[in-house]
Amino acid sequence: MRLLTYIANKLAISAVSTQQLADQYACYILQHLNLEYHQEYEDIPTLIQEHIDQIIYEMGHNQKPLAYCLGSTPFLDLTLAIAPPTLIPRQETEQMCHWIREAYADKKISHILDIGTGSGCIALSLAKAFPQVSVTATDISAEAITLAQQNAKKNNVTNVTFKKTSLLPSEMTSIDLIVSNPPYLSSSEWESLDPSVKEWEDKRALIADDDGLAIYKAIIDNTPSLGYPDVVFEFGVPEQAPKIEKFLKDVGYSKITIHTDLYERKRWIAASLILKRWSNLNTK
Length: 284
Known about the structure:
It contains 13 helices and nine strands. By secondary structure, it is of the alpha/beta class.
């Protein structure tokens, strides 16, 4: 049996909900193992057969996400090591980072802060795109910081500093851009998650108080003391967008835009202080 067909059929039976997803995951597995789609399962070495069958078993029996089974995932022009319980980077975060890289390509910025860095996907993708910029990345999890540091080394990114802290480094006083994909689920939303998330990914990185809005509010309330940096936040559901927008307006942000992902769902919000930028221009 062709290898692609073998893996996809096994996944469709035991691990995933649709044949389309099974086909997609089978392709990921083959790419990760540097195998050809047209190869016959019976023709590959026994050790590789066993490895493939173990991945399928882990996904089906233990509800283990594919990225954890493979130990890595692509993210824009990076290859990131991934290990539980650090969150697996999502496609929407990748799209947000792509947008930031384009939106800030011609802007003069010197310092970016990534809050809740996890695997380091946001910090590293921006640091690689803007090698002249200093990036600081924070996370409450020591495991996440260690993994992010490994990913910086793995991808030869040197302009990132990682700090273990809940939100803002205590010594930070000025920043040009804050980017964050913070915890945004309520406790009730977390209860309804698929076991592949609940049983594997860090609960602290998923849940926040006040219906998932507490971290946004805490970050935004600190922006005046940081000189009103530009901010970009990913969020979970469209209903959160107007509430985050109100937080931003309450502290003085005057240019706020909401952006959609490839499926036309509202997924991130960007804000800047127009008056501040005009004032800077007028004083030059």
